[in-house]
Amino acid sequence: MDIFQTNKNQKRLVIIGGGFAGIELAKRIDTKKFEVLLLDKHNYFTFQPLLYQVATGGLEPDSVAYPLRKIFSKKKHISFRLAEVFKIDTDSKVIETNIGFIPFDILVIASGSTTNFFGMDQLQKNALSLKSVTDALDLRSFILQNFEAALLTTDINLQKRLLNFVIVGGGPTGVEVAGALAELKKSVLPNDFPEIDSQLMSITIVESGANVLGVMSDFAQRKSKKQLEEIGVNLMMNTQLVSYDGRDAQLKDSSTTLSASGKIETSALIWTAGVKGNIPAGLKPDLIVKGNRIVVDDFNGVKGVKDVYAIGDVASIEKGAHPMLAPVAMQQGKNLARNLNRKNENEWKPFSYFDKGTMATIGRSRAVADLMFNIHLKGFLAWMSWLFIHLMLLVGFRNRIIVFINWMWNYFSYDRAIMLIVRKYNKKSEP
Amino acid sequence: MDIFQTNKNQKRLVIIGGGFAGIELAKRIDTKKFEVLLLDKHNYFTFQPLLYQVATGGLEPDSVAYPLRKIFSKKKHISFRLAEVFKIDTDSKVIETNIGFIPFDILVIASGSTTNFFGMDQLQKNALSLKSVTDALDLRSFILQNFEAALLTTDINLQKRLLNFVIVGGGPTGVEVAGALAELKKSVLPNDFPEIDSQLMSITIVESGANVLGVMSDFAQRKSKKQLEEIGVNLMMNTQLVSYDGRDAQLKDSSTTLSASGKIETSALIWTAGVKGNIPAGLKPDLIVKGNRIVVDDFNGVKGVKDVYAIGDVASIEKGAHPMLAPVAMQQGKNLARNLNRKNENEWKPFSYFDKGTMATIGRSRAVADLMFNIHLKGFLAWMSWLFIHLMLLVGFRNRIIVFINWMWNYFSYDRAIMLIVRKYNKKSEP
């Protein structure tokens, strides 16, 4: 079946990736001018900021993701195909996918990012990460399986190892996972696993920098540190992970806080310390820069390649790379759509990032937020703002209602009800 | 860790299986007399009557299942362990599991039932079934993948084959799946997959008996037939499946409705035509009767084996086997708990099944119900009764709210929103 039903006034626009960037572009593109084909290897959009709540039993996966077809089901001239892109050929203007060759007039690469293990294969094999819905479900199964395993032994050292959660990376994801695990320790573990001494559970953030939330304000860094300590999260700053074999995390320390061996005994290591661009094959190697991103000009055009653009995490603007954040991705999608909709290329506007602020939750009723106009919040007020903004950002009205009810439930019951081990997580090496 | 913390007045009661029967027993047992250990290979209870809605995108898996630990978290003397039972030794009174040997004073086998393919390996390899949460998620992925695949071909025969849903078995599960698929055809397929001609989708129930819902009243059989035909489901009665290779279903027909070849071209066959008891190894072969069930006396005691009981689907009362239904399982669990709680064995009461009725939905706003006092309902009223009763039977208040909201959503939007292919279903042979 020919995917494109282009009329003579339309160009074929192919978007690779249905994330924040790709969706924003598709939503705003002028379909009188473009026949749009959106490709993604999943049939759903993932709202990544809430994945940590899926991993810790607070939300269903189905309420933080949304079927891509449904977003565009009312729109003519926008099609979706479930497809994996193997290779891009920018000269012949065709991409190779598992559903065949697809020609394009304009190509937008919005394939996002994936966990970066920096080539440490042993770490990749043994650590958990949190970039996709399946990652989150694996982590949920893994946490519950470790709790169950801790019940089956009288060896207190093995129990400690199973319950010693080490999060490497003190960015927003690391901090939010740590906060949610601290809630599990406080409210869920004592109820659901009364036979386990919940004090054996330990949560540690290992961060190579001097502070958690290094991308945020000094205020946020100080307050988040304080709030994390209040809920019992251990902080190991200026510390780098060297290796992890599934039993012991080997650390390198630039201060003196480490034990002589520099080891932490843990069979639960969560890696949130790096992401890298997710680039389809076929681009010239000199287009790929730091963080495995594609170098683009001020208009998100891939350097020296006509009619090919990159937006979101995968794009790195030559004059100054932006952080790999959802707001950047959304704004780049919006800006590119507006430019493509314009008649004359000399009317195009360069991308400029408008920073609306950054926020992170730290368990129940605690958060930090850097907002516009130099407003910095902490505690309950920051937490309420976080809840409200994320509820509004969710895709789908049904999802909003379900998330809202789950949050109310979690808040008033102190429980986390969504605790099914639907698919067993098979640990690759024994604890 | 010793699982049992029995005091001198307590006996060790082990329950294998956290389904309707096992849970009902555990809830009602006198924990002054018994220290209870509940074992299940999943950490959750599955509300099987709603699995078909998970498979067709109407409900999240997390709202039809409930963590077993949470059911008993407030109860002392009831423990849960995630465990697979390998073998029962009724002489030494010990069971062998993947978490070690577990001794018992009293054993209750409540391990339920599983899909029965009657030894047809090729069928088992190629058909889908619907007995567990993972089955339901596989079926959901499978349906969506077939829709996606139908988009990629211009071969109309292949499209028809991909969209030809054949349900073998006209019991409640088969009828409910067929009804839900008819809703997908009518309301979801035209919106989400506008490029597919939805008339190519076809839904057929193949049933070896003369009528669907053979276990229900004549009234229900007639009305359900009418309602199924109204929503466009094809009925092939008096027809048996002989084989299925993933492409063609070979049928045997005792009437004359079949084409000469007796074949249906389908790559979407759902098998709901049989269940069999799920018996752990170790019981004497002469205890296992028709339907792979354990023969028990009127008190659900395993014939000739002291202190070992079987309840629910896995149990077959010698004087007259009951159908494998949730109400039977629940009532047997309740009756056995009451008997075990009694002081004297001569006070024990034999099990007698109190039939409160049977019901089945047939898509949107349609259903049939046989109730007590010879009341028979059909249509909207039966459908509302079905919704209300199933909402009340759900475990967990949160689940009830979420299911209620999803039902409201599905009803008013005509949509099915929970359509994620979270884990790809890998078909074992090509269409």
Which key terms come to mind for this protein?
2 domains; FAD/NAD(P)-binding domain; 12 helices; homodimer; globular; 5-stranded parallel β-sheet; 431 residues; alpha/beta; 25 strands
Write a structural description.
By secondary structure, chain A is an alpha/beta fold. The first copy, chain A, folds into two domains: 11-41 and 83-115 and 276-347, FAD/NAD(P)-binding domain, CATH 3.50.50.60; 121-273 and 365-413, 3-Layer(bba) Sandwich (FAD/NAD(P)-binding domain), CATH 3.50.50. Chain A has twelve helices and 25 strands. In chain A, the strands form eight sheets. The first copy, chain A, has a five-stranded parallel sheet with strand order 5-2-1-9-21, with no helix packed on it. In chain A, helix 1 runs parallel beside helix 10 (326-341) and helix 6 packs antiparallel against helix 7. The model of chain A has no long low-confidence stretch (mean pLDDT 92).
